[in-house]
Write a structure and sequence with these properties.
Blueprint (H helix, E strand, L loop, with lengths): L1 E6 L17 E4 L5 H11 L5 E7 L1 H13 L6 E7 L5 H5 L7 E8 L2 E3 L2 E5 H12 L7 H14 L4 E9 L4 E14 L21 E7 L3 H13 L17 E12 L3 E4 L2 E4 L5 E13 L6
Parallel strand pairs: 1-2, 1-3, 3-4, 4-14
Antiparallel strand pairs: 5-6, 5-14, 7-9, 7-12, 8-9, 8-11, 9-10, 10-11, 11-14, 12-13
Length: about 290
Amino acid sequence: MKKLHIMNPAAGRGALPDPSSLEGEAYITKAPGDAVRFLRERLSSDEDEYRVFAYGGDGTLNEVVTGIMLAGAGRRCILSPVPTGSGNDFAHVLDGTCGIFDCDVIKYNERYAINEINTGFDTGVVVRTNDIKRFPLIKGTAAYILGVVGELIQKKASELKLTLLGVDGKEETFEGKYLLCLLSNGSFYGGGFKAAPTADISDGALDLFLASDMSRTRFLGLVGKYRAGEHLTKDGAVIQKAADVLIYRRCVSLRLEGMKRFSADGEVYGADEGYVIEASVVPSALRVAPARED
């Protein structure tokens, strides 16, 4: 099995090993999107198996996964995140795991995400958090919390329409003003928020959270539970305190309309004309293993 090290020198921590010290081939990305291009070309050109190490944060991992999937190489690659970014939530999902196992991914339109897609309040927080991370010594969860505070001051709900297909085969539609929408494969995002505590990256399903508009006071009363993953009970039901403002579903596909920007694995996309996202789970799309297993 060939080893391929994809390194993002612009990732938050900027601490990369000397490529000459690594076994296998190292590629240092040159610009946003370069990892997608490189991997799509490289993995389409032969049928070899690869162990792909992704050095960076969740955004780097997003590009690596997209490149692998666009090359049709998910089942002949083993993906190993090396968390050197300012946001490393998917690597956090792998904490405590060992060995090689199958991982689902989210296919949305013509791209892929491995951890989550969100819109509304959360996306605004991502934008603010990325700005805050430019300041020295403010990283990870601290930057995310400050982003939450800043976004809360200018809180604005979005008009959204969602049509989902549940794991039980039932189709549901939700339409109205919502504060946030999160479609999650992994359990953590936002620098350590356990937003999807029951999510399992190998269960062939996605976790959807949809929060109605609410007052700032109500939000502040719930955000601590959300951060700790305590907004759901052990049985996977929304806690009574949040039952009137939070919808939780397990689904296999989702059509989302109305947003003008959204975030996929921490990367923000936006357009004045708005977006329609067609998202679905791709079960056992690729193999993953913690980098320490090497």
